[in-house]
Predict the structure.
Amino acid sequence: MAREPLRRAEGRRDKRKMRSRRHNPDGTMSLKDHLYELRNRLGWAVLFILLGGVFGFIWFFTRLGPIPPLGDIILQPYCKLPTNLRFEPNGTCQLLQTKPFEGFMVQFKVGIAAGMVVSAPFWLYQIWSFITPGLYAKERKFATIFVGFASVLFAAGGVLAFYVIPQGLEVLVSFGGGVFITALNASDYISFVLVMLLIFGVSFEMPLLVIMLNRIGILPYDNLRRWRRGIIFGLFVFAAFATPGTDPISMVALGVAMVVLFEFAVQVSRIHDRAKARREAAEDPAAGLSDDEATPMADYRPEPIEDVALPVEQAKGKGGFDDVT
């Protein structure tokens, strides 16, 4: 009787090992075990995001050596406005809090956003560990390169947005001349900044999408070349609708950046398709021939037949063959 609880505990431990990718590296698991694995990976990912959010919440008012507090970094675009356009009752650049709990919610929102960025390597690793066993080695290599470039492009889009926001704000608050003075609400301003960072970051992923579709054969270079003008026009229309403000500076900056990245993706697709065509021409002698040209004949010269040792059962027969033959 005393061994029964021990056996049950060992059985549960063995089941956990079978659900673990470390003990089951080939990924052959049942649907239930895959769901357990997904639950564990998502749980760890959420935990890392929450820990990053705590770090961002503390960083909001805390200086980290040479790095200024996160609140000062977020406030910089607003503070770059001319002093005659913003409301400064005590001579300090500050946002307006109109609700008792608004300051805490702004700090929490910014902390979570910063925590997702800071802890990105950890929670992305959990998602990557769940997906990797189902991919081939070549696919894993390609996906690693894709994720790396996606992270760099998203950060580049956020940096561009951070430099565009002050100019866009100045245009937005300058309407009305000297009739109005700007006293931005904290929640509205933080939401505007975060949305701009997200839109610019996601928009910069467009060239990766084009290159990926080209690699799998859905979007060849010939189509991109024919559709180039229409796509460029569509990118500027998307930039006009995507930017939350009505200022032309944000729209033009986003549109021009997306067009440059799109043209880069087009050239990468052109190089890839030319290399693919050369490989296919080398493998297929009929590639590149017109309909009235004959396909070159293959080499049909006979080859000598090598001596093959007969099985023992056939060697016992008459003349080296069995009785039926």
In short: The radius of gyration is 32 Å.
